[in-house]
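Ticket #4471: structure export looks truncated?
Reporter: QA, pipeline team
Priority: medium

Steps to reproduce: submit the single chain below to the structure queue and open the exported record.
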Amino acid sequence: MADKRRKQIIEDLRGLSDQDLLEALHTERRKLYDLRTQNIMRQLDNTAALPQTRKQIARILTLQKERALAASRTGGG
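Actual output as written to the record:
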């Protein structure tokens, strides 16, 4: 079940434009900063949110890299 949800998340990200991906990346990095701050202050209830957010950032960066490589191969970049 988690595998289906992960695939859905990736497909949703693939549907975003380049600008939307940048905004999502900014949002996730801000969220990670806030989560780390809460964790240090012992206010974070769901500590699993930290690795989940890091994985989401990695997914976004991976998609950006894929798009950059595809653009360079086709000469459109």
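Status: closed, not a bug. The export was complete when the record was re-opened. Leaving a note from the reviewer for reference: The mean pLDDT is 92.
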